[in-house]
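The instructor's notes for this session suggest beginning with a concrete chain rather than abstract definitions. Hand out the sequence below and ask the class to guess, before any prediction is shown, which regions might be ordered.
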Amino acid sequence: MIVHRLGENEYLLVINAGTREKDFNWVRDNTRQFNCAVENLSDDFTQIAIQGPKAVNVAARLTDADLGA
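After discussion, reveal the predicted structure:
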């Protein structure tokens, strides 16, 4: 799981796509006692994980963003 903090009280959890239904249900069921909203936004986002020593060079071909920083 990867957790992105979007704001003071807002987070985006990135879970394994292969187990997303099971994992989403677990998060939803285990946050019921808290004052929070849990939404499944899986169809609204995509994540590509590129790793290794050539990752920056490979990803740089896909964007104009400065990935070297």
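Then share the key points. The longest strand covers residues 2-7. The chain has a mean pLDDT of 91.
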